## 1
Amino acid sequence: MYVDVKGYEGPLDLLLDLARKQKVDLANISVLALAEQYLSFIDTIRERRIEVAADYLVMAAWLTFLKSRLMVPHEDDNDEPTGEEMAALLQFRLKRLEAMRDAAEKLINRPQLNREIFARGDPESVVTDRKNIWEATYFDLLRAYAVQRERQIPAEYAPKSRTVWSLQDAEDILRRLIGEGADWVPLHACLSQYLDLPEERITALASSFTASLEMVRQGQLELRQSKVFGPLMVRRKSVE
Amino acid sequence: MDQNTGQVIDDDNDIGEITGRNLRVLEALLFAAKEPLHLEEAKPFLSDGANIEDLAAQLSEKYKHSGVNLVKRGEAYAFRTAEDLGFLLRREETERKPLSRAALEIMAIIAYHQPVTRSEIEEVRGVATSKGTLDVLMEAGWVRMRGRRRTPGRPVTYGTTPEFLDHFGLEAITDLPGLNELKGTGLLSANLPPDFAVPAPNDGDLFDNEDPLDADDDGDDLLTELSQDDFDH
Amino acid sequence: MDQNTGQVIDDDNDIGEITGRNLRVLEALLFAAKEPLHLEEAKPFLSDGANIEDLAAQLSEKYKHSGVNLVKRGEAYAFRTAEDLGFLLRREETERKPLSRAALEIMAIIAYHQPVTRSEIEEVRGVATSKGTLDVLMEAGWVRMRGRRRTPGRPVTYGTTPEFLDHFGLEAITDLPGLNELKGTGLLSANLPPDFAVPAPNDGDLFDNEDPLDADDDGDDLLTELSQDDFDH
């Protein structure tokens, strides 16, 4: 036998090949003969100093044990498998491997996709339309309008400036109106000529009141109010 | 097999069977082809002397009412989804996006000042208007081209659509607030020049100085087109 | 339309028309796709309450004698050229290298024994399995990692994919050739001696003794990983 061990896919493959050479159904195979063939095969290649992979040697050891069990039955030992059980096991493994090989063969001989059977060659793909939904609120819209219309108002336009009495103005006016008189006078009475002008009324009142407080602080005026919301009385403070 | 051969009127049963087989083969070839199939390419697969044109016509007929049809593309044939089922192959993906400030401003001007031309929009805004922004507003369905102003250059006039009213919850374009209402809500300041006016918007019929758009008017600037033409000659 | 609805027995003409339309829609969707289509995916396009299984059965029947057949692949359906035309249409595959004998054998063992671990594959073949061969099968898209067996070392379990069914023209994994015979002889048992309960291959849900794979599980051997770790520290 000059078969290179490298041609086999493991010891089981080698055993299956040897078994097939017996040309009988695996069920009727002589396991003893098979074991002997395997062992002599391994011996041959070892004699030829070809390195043998470990699993082949493990199988050889197991088959040697099987052979001894088949030839010398050990009836006393219940834990160990009998030679017949070991032989059945080997037969099962060989049959299973062969069955898987047959199955692979059947599978690969089926009509295959892209070989005998074809899918749609030019599938029609789904086209996705992207669509934007624009979001804007009514308020955004109105504000956008107002903002840009105002932006476009010519810069030279100057709004009418309001009449404002500064504190200094108010103080000067107050001093002039009260004059040298030392009698109590209602504040609004001495301002009456200004309070009739609607655009000056508020600023006249507010500024002269604030100015009067300042003048009180400086010791130039005296203020008096006899009841809540009553008229505010004012007079020049007499110089000591 | 009788289903196919039944359509074929043949005295001889054998010929019917051969035609049936040719039909099946052609059908499979057309289905598997990566691009529209020239009938010539099917020839090696069919029986000698098969009338390919006739086979293709029979297949077209067979698929006429199906979800897929056999259609002719130039000199070649292909299976294609029936036209009325084209929607099956289209998906819509929508994305919500806020309108840009520029778009909002242009939208607002169009709403108040319509019918308004692009250069009038620019006058109000003081900046140039990109065509893209107008396109966005038209894509949104809020702005439409109304017509062309009967002035030199015949510029397109823009206006709002019913969808605009719908989106902003207006019953009519006249519901847009006027000058006093805008002042009242504080959107416009109280101090405006005396000649400051907010127009009364009108989204209705064409004005006297507007011409309707032709059906094939794509809104391009006529002056631009003209200069393009000049350039070509 | 009568061609389609003619097959449907309906008292009501409207129902017949709706069914006819559903048939056309399903036909178009299945025709347009290259990969098998899950009927669920067609649901949004059909009328409410349409019996999809029944529609698929009607389509199968309609195409039974055509050059193109509607076939079932696992849970999905696809149009494929008729199997009996294979000898005519046959082309040698150019993209894929033919599988090695070992790879073919391993594929068969995985198909018939799934879910199966690498050591069980080795037990059947009596020889070590190179990781590369498994990778070739996974790259072809025929084999997948299913999970991890809940046993010491938590080995990866392998099984076949839907593409495997499609490639080899199987309706279900139970249609594997010669499966019943193999079950009868007890040769599908991974354990020795043969079990009395003969397992059947299953490419579906995880078994009780299988854990799902983590999303980032690359299928490496856990023991190997451990020793790698040990080595690093």
## 2
Amino acid sequence: MKEKTTEDYIIDPDVYICDPVPQQTPDQNMVYPFYDHLRDNRLTTTRCKDCGHITWPPKIVCTECMSDQLEWEDFPPTGKIYAFTVQVGGVPPGFQAPLVYALIDFDNDLRIISPLIDTDPDDVHVGDEVVLKVVEAPRDRVLFFFKLKK
Amino acid sequence: MKEKTTEDYIIDPDVYICDPVPQQTPDQNMVYPFYDHLRDNRLTTTRCKDCGHITWPPKIVCTECMSDQLEWEDFPPTGKIYAFTVQVGGVPPGFQAPLVYALIDFDNDLRIISPLIDTDPDDVHVGDEVVLKVVEAPRDRVLFFFKLKK
Amino acid sequence: MGQKRVALVAAGITKFGKRKATFRDLIAEAGKATFDSNKNISPKDVKAFIISTVYPERSAFQGHPAPLAAEWCGVRPTEFHERVENQCGSGTSAIRTAYAAIMSGLTDLVMVVGVEKVMVPSHKEIFLNAMAGSDREWESCFGVTPPPLFAMVAQAHMQKFGTTEEQLALVSVKNHNHSKTNPYAHHQKGATLEQVMTSRLIAAPLKLFDCSTNTDGAAGVIVALEERAKSLTDKPVYILGTAQINDGYPWVAYPKDWSTWPSLRFAAQKAYEMAGIGPKDVDVAEVHDCFTISEIIEYEELGFCKKGEGGRFVEDGQSDYGGEVVVNPSGGLIACGHPFGATGVRQAWEAYIQLRDEAGTRQVKGAEIFLGHNLSGLGEHHILIYGRS
Amino acid sequence: MGQKRVALVAAGITKFGKRKATFRDLIAEAGKATFDSNKNISPKDVKAFIISTVYPERSAFQGHPAPLAAEWCGVRPTEFHERVENQCGSGTSAIRTAYAAIMSGLTDLVMVVGVEKVMVPSHKEIFLNAMAGSDREWESCFGVTPPPLFAMVAQAHMQKFGTTEEQLALVSVKNHNHSKTNPYAHHQKGATLEQVMTSRLIAAPLKLFDCSTNTDGAAGVIVALEERAKSLTDKPVYILGTAQINDGYPWVAYPKDWSTWPSLRFAAQKAYEMAGIGPKDVDVAEVHDCFTISEIIEYEELGFCKKGEGGRFVEDGQSDYGGEVVVNPSGGLIACGHPFGATGVRQAWEAYIQLRDEAGTRQVKGAEIFLGHNLSGLGEHHILIYGRS
Ligand SMILES: [Zn+2]
Ligand SMILES: [Zn+2]
């Protein structure tokens, strides 16, 4: 599967209503540190300083105790594939089949869904370990993909 | 006020979500005859053959008796301005201030709101008579504007 | 005075398909069909109106649909009106809201219209609009839409319970064959097992015929307080029970084992209790077969069969005429198509005709209890149970 | 057992303004503020959840907001959840729906969050999105948005009743001055008559300061059945009456004389009757001042003054502290800004703090009765009346 270019993941970066990639800067998003970390190749989320609750995705208020005293925490470096599928039909505009989507479980008890990139669909198995692969998106943005751990 | 070009009334004619001009063809709209009539410089709406009820805008089902036996009827050739305003600020994208909007009353007891075109705002008064002025829109579409009757 | 009750007193539907019609044309058509179904009610009798619709803001560049829809149906509401939305479960949510509005005393009769204009001329935009339905910031931005998600559900169920691709396909075969007698369905040609099994792969194990179809459509019902209902028809269709749940958002926040849907089990239990019945009492059901695997898991969680035996249930014909319960006699989402805001209302329309013996050749003989189910996610479920009395 | 009653038991709000926050950030902030307002309620106690929001599908590319919002507020609903929308009247509609859900017995406690992300980075798109709010096919396609429509309302009122531009301006002066004590308002600097009168012309006679402001914001309330409410706070704020109406769509289908709004008069009468009060009993009101002329006509149709005397009513200070009724102590839509889905819930938040004597320097002393009003068109009105007991 060929690597996606940034343009593959965007419809029209100048029309917000057609642009599914999130805004990632402090002037538009209170969880912007997530994206700053991502630019440093760190996958992070928020943990509550008051009750210890951790969630994915990151938040500005703890969904367990409503505290806004949250801190950023790194994910374990590798995750494990719980399930995956290769989408070959009906892919949205800006995307190219085949797309390998995986449910990735981490030791911190969190699960992420994301496409695997730089990955031959035939090489993927349930239980395989995967690592983060940061991909650039239009207007200086980034997205968190994964790839098989070599 | 300079006459609008078609481009003034459209954001992006290739993205439906950004295009406020209605679809006007039989493959997309059951009141398409309205637009066919408009192309012939006729302003029309629907009247119920069963109960005689007439509405603006045109419909495919009578809102009085739920009959779908409707017929097309022409508006009287002139309407009268009930009220108008000149919008100079906060105009939507694709539009240029000043915009003269008028509530136009017709003898058939119907009221239409539309911009006046080819019209100096200073020449407009409540009670003035106006006539239809068909304006072309992108992708072979038309819109019903009005202008002062000379 | 006994317990207040609420019943359907009218129901109508439009043809589902790639319609040559606008958003509001569909509404008007459903409105007419609804009033045509009961000549004792005219638009002027209706003082409360709910529209169920998901994204007209995108597909029709049209917000604020409630007063538009009311007006196009000839209704000027003076007691209650609004738009209710819950993605794929919007229709059932809207009817629940009508139930609440009536039981609360704010009104005694509500018209509910469900509608979706999905088939915009640009194929690209149909898919783009679909992306708004999941979590845009954390999931949709990667192009995640339901097909790959339910493909992983299917894999989990196949792995854990031995469900086969043929069993999935048999759901589609059954529903496509049902729709041959439903003139309003998007697909009416039926389908063979071979056709389903050899249809184009979407995301393994799901093929094109395992998936519901994008379509345009609308449906309407009128709901009334029992006393009023009885004055309007001699065969009201009563709402006996209802339940609703959401167990986590986004997709990855659901419980980790995607082969079981405990939240649906919980909601079904609640709805049965409220109705004073059990799953064996259900004669006919319209359940949310957005994908074939969904219907199989729904058999199990709704209690029509044991957990893990959903595949065998359809294989044995237990969800077809002559079986334990007739599921999706209309053809379901797979054959009718799935105009999001309309689907739950279409299910109520099927309840109305089935429990009044007006379903023609697809009538489930002697049906007394009907169950309608929508989902808007693995853990988000909406249930209504209807009864003849 | 007496008549069941429903009351507010918590209320919170975010700062309104051009917020450096996403749609969901605003929801989380309002959720926290709501739970912070009553420590007897935690997210786990909440089993029913309604979100009021108008167009996240456009401004945030985010549909299906109900489960998202519930989750971001820590709530996993098992009894009732949905999104309610009625354009500018969405917030009041959502609280009415919560009232109905509780009175119906489906639940006994509902969290309602109202939110709108309006200020997308592209100015062009803010206006483009606004066009979805009117009839796209017959009115918005010409760029028709509320300012020119309400300009014509103002002209009609000025012509018929002699209302002056200064009287319009005085509504803005009052509301801007009120908001100086509301730290959550978009504008908090106050305004002089000269500032209002010399502000930039939008559509004659309306100037920039006659118009409400585009803004981001969210607000939340929790509504409960009386028995439960009393166990959660010693000062519940009761819903005494409510009404809703829509008299025609689109704009030109309203009655021809735009200077009078008979549908608002009708709805107000109904709400007063249900509450067992009259207009003179209202101590404090938050009404829909989308434009200054709206507030003046609302004085009249709500019965605070005689028809045609709204201009004089504000001129005489009768809608300010010390007058007949304090209108828009929060600053109203004009000074708070108008994040569509949030506005009606913000009004309920003001009811909550005013009727509990928690409004600080803008407290209306001894206020017993609060009226909240939204409009979503000249003939579309939504009313809630709250009382201290
Ligand atoms: Zn916490
Ligand atoms: Zn008729």
## 3
Amino acid sequence: MPELTYIQAISDGLRQEMRRDQRVFLMGEDVGVYGGAFKVSLGFQEEFGPWRVIDTPLSETAIVGGATGAALMGMRPVAEMQFADFISCAWDHLVTVAAKQFFRGRTPVPIVVRLPSGGGFSGGPFHSQNPESSFAHIPGLKIVCPATPHDAKGLLASAIEDPNPVLYFEHKHLYRRIKGEVPEERYTVPFGQANVHREGEDAVVVTWGAMVHTATDAADELAKEGTEVEVLDLRTLIPWDREKVLESVRRTSKVLVLHEDTRTGGFGGEIAATIAEEAFEDLDAPVMRVAAPDTPVPFSPPLEKAFIPQAEDVLQALEELVAY
Amino acid sequence: MPELTYIQAISDGLRQEMRRDQRVFLMGEDVGVYGGAFKVSLGFQEEFGPWRVIDTPLSETAIVGGATGAALMGMRPVAEMQFADFISCAWDHLVTVAAKQFFRGRTPVPIVVRLPSGGGFSGGPFHSQNPESSFAHIPGLKIVCPATPHDAKGLLASAIEDPNPVLYFEHKHLYRRIKGEVPEERYTVPFGQANVHREGEDAVVVTWGAMVHTATDAADELAKEGTEVEVLDLRTLIPWDREKVLESVRRTSKVLVLHEDTRTGGFGGEIAATIAEEAFEDLDAPVMRVAAPDTPVPFSPPLEKAFIPQAEDVLQALEELVAY
Amino acid sequence: MAVREAEPVGSLQEVKEAGLDREDLLGMYRAMLITRGIEERGHILYKQGKIPGSFYTGRGNEAAAVGVGSAMGPNDVGTPLHRDMGVHITRGVDPWRIFAQYMGREGGPTRGRDGNVHMAMPELGLHPMVSHLPAMLPVATGMALAFKIRNEKRVALGWFGEGAAARGDAHEAMNMAGVRQLPIVFVCDNNQWAYSTPTYLSFPVEHIADRAAAYGFDGVVVDGTDVLAVYREAKRAIEKAREGGGPTLLECLTLRMEGHAVHDDAFYVPKEMFEQWAAQDPIERFRSWLRDHAELTDEEDDEIASSVKRTLNSALEQADESPLPDPAGLEAGVYAAPEDLDTPHHK
Amino acid sequence: MAVREAEPVGSLQEVKEAGLDREDLLGMYRAMLITRGIEERGHILYKQGKIPGSFYTGRGNEAAAVGVGSAMGPNDVGTPLHRDMGVHITRGVDPWRIFAQYMGREGGPTRGRDGNVHMAMPELGLHPMVSHLPAMLPVATGMALAFKIRNEKRVALGWFGEGAAARGDAHEAMNMAGVRQLPIVFVCDNNQWAYSTPTYLSFPVEHIADRAAAYGFDGVVVDGTDVLAVYREAKRAIEKAREGGGPTLLECLTLRMEGHAVHDDAFYVPKEMFEQWAAQDPIERFRSWLRDHAELTDEEDDEIASSVKRTLNSALEQADESPLPDPAGLEAGVYAAPEDLDTPHHK
Ligand SMILES: Cc1ncc(C[n+]2csc(CCOP(=O)(O)OP(=O)(O)O)c2C)c(N)n1
Ligand SMILES: Cc1ncc(C[n+]2csc(CCOP(=O)(O)OP(=O)(O)O)c2C)c(N)n1
Ligand SMILES: [Mg+2]
Ligand SMILES: [Mg+2]
């Protein structure tokens, strides 16, 4: 099996879907000639032509609203936001139109919005955000956050296949940092199935996206002291795999919920609250959360480092948790 | 002290602030001649003139963005959304500009956005929402949800005084349904101080907005069986009164978190998670949550009734909780 | 002025050239009567407490809605709004479904999930509006984009009010449609008021259609009380779009003849304005035209009127038999399953 | 065409009539040199790894930025963008603050909270941009609204790119400003590319300024490489706004002479386009003009150049002495306290 970077897996996966299904097309700013800000669609316009790889004006509302309309006409649009941060400009269209259309009118809206998200390279307050929690609160949307090249490709195929609006958060800091084996043939990774990224019995970290790797680094470090921590990668937030999370909690009795986004009102609260409600009797320690502090994402390296949860932060929290 | 309805309290409070401070002005759709969709500003334009009670075009972005600009120039804008639901059209301006401006540039953005929110009268998916949870996740915004006429006036004064962007959620279903004593003179209700709306020692319901009354109805019902439940009204979500919540939880050992908005990713998760983390040892039962199911707000009365938490739902949950 | 102001329609000959025979004309007339009839009855139902929530009508807009709806081709699609009941009727929605919608019954197109005119039947090429105006314009643009990508000779119609034209959605949709020369017609229901807001507080130019120039396409203003002129202009715009000529902004000028919704008595609208526009009531106007040019007789007119009445009576009955929705199905309806995609209109 | 295309500036006489004396002219020249100098040095710093994140320049836009900035009155305000370093310089920002900003130091206007040109000094009447383009236009409109409410003779300037003009924010801001005749000038940096997107894929009309007609105000296109023509047109528009004449859309036509940001080699821009516009480099152009019309000598020019160099050298040094921000203060800076309102510019 070939080793691909996370971004190659996305690119290959998208190309495969577009080859497979004429209805799939890509639209966004600079996705054509330029190949997208991160070059995910490099060469696509040559292969698929300018009407399946559409360079749009700088118009997030028209992009997402337009994708919705095209989907209603039977297409399978994939819309690219140049950075996930800019999805704020299309918030209304996702929340008001796409999320509620099927409930109201029984017409599915099979769109995928690709969202290069996350920090770690001094992108500052507007090029580093992880806005998945805000959307995870909106019934009607599905939220996907792959952590590995394998999942990036398989979840993208599932997202395109899914008859609902799917927000596909691709973490920029994983783009070229993470490599892994990715089958060449098409496959799907189903939504709502968490993945045990690292095994362990002494505690579990529930997380997703880039933090899967941060958690693993911390767990590997802790393993040197003989403590084995499971890292459970949710893969998708909506739907999220309550069963597997609760099973892990019941098994390990100690849980840390970790995310890169800010703490208050983040999706970690939902997970922690669910655990507290459903596995109360099985807990040997309070459900801990590690997340970014409640500030915009700062630009300057020492500030950004303090903002984004680091392996040391997770390690420290795990030590506390295990010692509880 | 005069008895006022909730909406009169808002109206009187706003008028008082505008009389007191020349810098305060109101802008929004139909707020002038018409007095606003709910008549909060009826007669204001006569008193304050068309440049302090400004009828805007149907432009939520320009309203909220404009309020931000005016605030930066030293004004104290109060922007009215015709319904809270329409704030989705200004999401970007609140999240991207207003919320982050002080952090980045050290220039405060003292704006208030008034948001007639909530359901209970067949307003359907677009005139019934409670979008406070989405915003409560955004660092830089403050979130206010008065439940009584007294608090409506006092929190509005605090909101206008506050140097930060404040989202002021006024619950439509309380407008004319709830009456209470409201001092004529100006006063403020500070942010971040929860209010014991009803006393009780056997359990506590943590809630806000219209649900304070639903919880009280349920608690009154339960009192007939000799069980006394405290109803703790948060009043403001950001900041929220962690101390008082934790104190109540420690005292009663049993807690129900209740909100009208949908469950998954709602702010109730944050509260429940915090309790589970900070008061783990004091709990005699899992933290329960009662909230709307994860659907858009349905229009038809039987559906809406099933959607919005009713006193019976709360009662049933409390009985379970108390019996745990 | 950049926009073209369309002439009124005169003779039957002219109309025939536009492709309408007498039956078509009577069909349009009937659609206008049904449209108004539904809304009048809805109003009564509302006052009787049988319609929950709020209630909106398009009184004064019947010609604009029916005129545009009639000009659409069978495979064209659109996103009509709260003043455009006539579009639904013209496209063939059975009136009982609308009453069922009003009353929150299972038989309404949204099965009680949404209310009032927030509905449409996709199998007839119409897609339901959302409250947030004019959010359906970018959606309509996307529909047109799909046709362009697939090289289909279909046209999308996106409706918007002159008030909502102030919102960014209108701009992004029109700009993108202009850049890509998409097969779309933007139909502005300019009824001169946006709730209580007069046009001069909504936009600072004479016509909304003046904006078309900013997007590189044509703007046309038509008297929205003249159903035949609306039809002619809509047809032109639609066929132009179909043939690759790009978008048109078609502004139908009317007056909103009632309050914004039932609760609003429209005190802010000058009385003379109502009087002036009442004198050109679209239905009366079309009736006289039919008498003068198409030999509509009293008997025929009466017969149409009673057939409309019968239709509405039985529609009401049928709607009333439709049950209220069962809350048990609420949560299951949020996400689509793969098989939900297998619909003819969603190809 | 609806918009006015401004003439180039010719003689010193003309310039004097516009209110500029020789010292002003040399000040503008110096500001352009500093602007370019900062960005050139920034580029080097970036390549040396001393600037985190990304790095943007406004090469080619120095005349447009300095021309407009110079035309602003002392109490006017504005929201310049990532190509408008010249505005900051013209308004008096000390260059070391900008280097400190680039490098994420405590001494930058955002104290390391934000990076690159996402900064401004409110005490000089400038307010920091956000990435989301053109979100600062509604904000600038609100500033103008404040002036109108308070009856102050101040003007707000809102900058935007020709690409970002496609977004709804531009529309809502201009429409509201038009409806209320606010004292604002909308300045379009039309540098012909939005990242890799050429103008014909961003908007379907000849000039962005064509849109002004849709909002009931004037549109002007000016050659953005001619600092004096820009100054003259900006001055006119600003004074018109100040006197109650309402908004103007001023489009400054330039070419973005480098990639979108450092990582972009602009392979998609035709080589001839760069060559053509390189021939009218705004700084070279102004230098020749000063030689021809204002007796700029080689000695004087050299002296200015070395003074600019000295300024930049010491600015860099000073910036480098500024510490990195302390994470301990991060969380405290999110919400303002009442006393944060007590600033002169925030009256
Ligand atoms: C984004 C948004 N803001 C506010 C409203 C509330 N609202 C409903 S209709 C209306 C007036 C619309 O005016 P116009 O576009 O002219 O349409 P009309 O109702 O006159 O047909 C308003 C303000 C809304 N529906 N959507
Ligand atoms: C809302 C939004 N979407 C996308 C981007 C990413 N982006 C940054 S600059 C740019 C191009 C802007 O073009 P233009 O407005 O012409 O300004 P220029 O950079 O050419 O000066 C894009 C797409 C953004 N900043 N904001
Ligand atoms: Mg209207
Ligand atoms: Mg540009």
